[in-house]
TrEMBL record:
UniProt key word Amino-acid biosynthesis: yes
CDD domains xrefs: AAT_like
Lineage: Bacteria, Bacillati, Actinomycetota, Actinomycetes, Micrococcales
Protein name as it appears in the record: Histidinol-phosphate aminotransferase
Cofactor(s) the protein requires to work: pyridoxal 5'-phosphate
NCBIfam families: PRK03321.1
Gene behind this protein: hisC
Enzyme class: transferase
Enzyme Commission number: 2.6.1.9
Family under the similarity heading: Belongs to the class-II pyridoxal-phosphate-dependent aminotransferase family. Histidinol-phosphate aminotransferase subfamily.
Pathway: Amino-acid biosynthesis; L-histidine biosynthesis; L-histidine from 5-phospho-alpha-D-ribose 1-diphosphate: step 7/9
A Pfam family of this chain: Aminotran_1_2
InterPro entries for this protein: Aminotransferase_I/II_large, ArAT, HisP_aminotrans, HistidinolP_aminotransfase, PyrdxlP-dep_Trfase, PyrdxlP-dep_Trfase_major, PyrdxlP-dep_Trfase_small
Domain of life per record: Bacteria
């Protein structure tokens, strides 16, 4: 008899990542993918060309230390280069952080709902998970998260702005939380949507690192820079943490194309920041439009909006798909990424019709 192949027991409780759906083609109208929090604008002029030039020598491995890019980012952020490490998207960094801290018998604390990769990478590592529910107003429940930390906790994940709800962690609540976290526990602040944030009280992970050496900041070029398809993100942390992370991030995972594109985009970062704030403007208009229709929509600081739906998320998703818009159904609600103005109008039409039908 052939035996079934053997895998680690941790896989039995590990969810596979479910990506955002593509939109369905609807005759006569343009379709929009608003299900993956992608930037609807193309990268800045010159970025694609820089990537294409770097693609000219595919027989060579990329610079594994991304020296030039690291130097450039260090200057931009005002941190020493030894505090920076690149990876294939923030995703690879999150997986690496789980890998250097977690194993069977250890514990992780993260908010929920939040980024769907947190349960995946931490379950795969074999850790016991404490997914702490957000507060009624969709924010991290930092009191409950601090209370969930035990002797076995090795990792805490925080997401600000939180995907999918858009809320940010404020400086004062962050400091109060950190005061309750033992210094042996690594705290990760996932700031994938940092550039879209418009709350002056939001914690800035880089500034917070001055007083919290166990804090790892994770950011990405996928969102505001619009380079999701090239896969490049990074961590900023104490050099000793970076040394350990270097053992977990796969060598050569950041391609030469990704490095070149990131360098070009970073060289014009003020334009990236302007565009991120324009996207934030579209986001706030969408929120106002939805609120005028009677929806309870939380303030968002990402490039997306959270529409809480106690029931009916699947119906909303289906109706949006029929109207040529793919949104993300996360069961307790739908997450709608910011897209071009025409897409936002389409979303408002769908949302208005949906509400009218429910209220009837
Ligand atoms: C909160 C959060 N963190 C990290 C990521 C991963 O980004 P990437 O791997 O594309 O850099 C995402 C992607 O959607 C995200 O929403």
């Amino acid at each position: 008899m052939t035996e079934k192949f053997a895998v680690r027991p941790a896989l039995s409780t590990t969810p596979a990542y479910i990506p955002g759906k593509p939109p369905a083609a609807v005759e006569g109208i343009e379709s929009y993918k608003l299900s993956s929090n992608e930037n609807h604008l193309p990268p800045l002029p010159g970025v694609v060309e820089a990537a294409a030039r770097a693609a000219g020598t595919p027989s060579h491995y990329p610079d594994p230390a991304a020296v030039a890019l690291t130097e450039q980012l260090a200057n931009h952020l005002g941190v020493p280069a030894e505090r920076i490490l690149f990876s294939a998207g923030a995703s690879e960094m999150l997986a690496s952080l789980a890998r250097i801290t977690l194993e069977a018998g250890t514990e992780v604390v993260y908010p929920w709902p939040s980024f769907e990769m947190y349960p995946q990478v931490t379950a795969l590592a074999g850790a016991t998970q404490h997914a702490v529910a957000l507060t009624a107003d969709f924010r991290h429940d930092l009191d409950a998260m601090a209370a969930a930390i035990t002797e076995s906790t090795r990792l805490v994940l925080l997401c600000s702005p939180n995907n999918p709800t858009g809320s940010v962690i404020r400086r004062a609540e962050f400091d109060a939380f950190m005061a309750r976290v033992p210094s042996r526990v690594l705290v990760v602040l996932d700031e994938a949507y940092w550039e879209f944030g418009t709350d002056p009280e939001a914690v800035d992970g880089l500034a917070a690192q001055r007083t919290h050496p166990n804090l790892v900041v994770v950011r990405t070029f996928s969102k505001a820079h619009g380079l999701a398809g090239l896969r490049i993100g990074f961590a900023v942390a104490d050099p000793e943490i970076i040394l350990e992370l270097r053992k977990a991030v796969l060598p050569f995972s950041v391609t030469a194309m990704a490095q070149a594109a990131a360098r070009e985009s970073l060289s014009r970062v003020s334009e990236v920041e302007v565009r991120a704030k324009e996207i934030a403007g579209l986001r706030d208009e969408l929120i106002s439009g939805l609120r005028e229709q009677g929806w309870q929509v939380p303030e968002s600081h990402g490039n997306y909006v959270w529409l809480p739906l106690t029931a009916g998320a699947a119906d909303f998703e289906a109706q949006a798909l029929a109207a040529g818009v793919a949104v993300r159904n996360l069961k307790d609600g739908v997450r709608i990424s910011v897209g071009p103005e025409a897409a936002m109008s389409r979303v408002l039409e769908v949302a208005g019709r949906f509400r009218a039908a429910v209220e009837r």
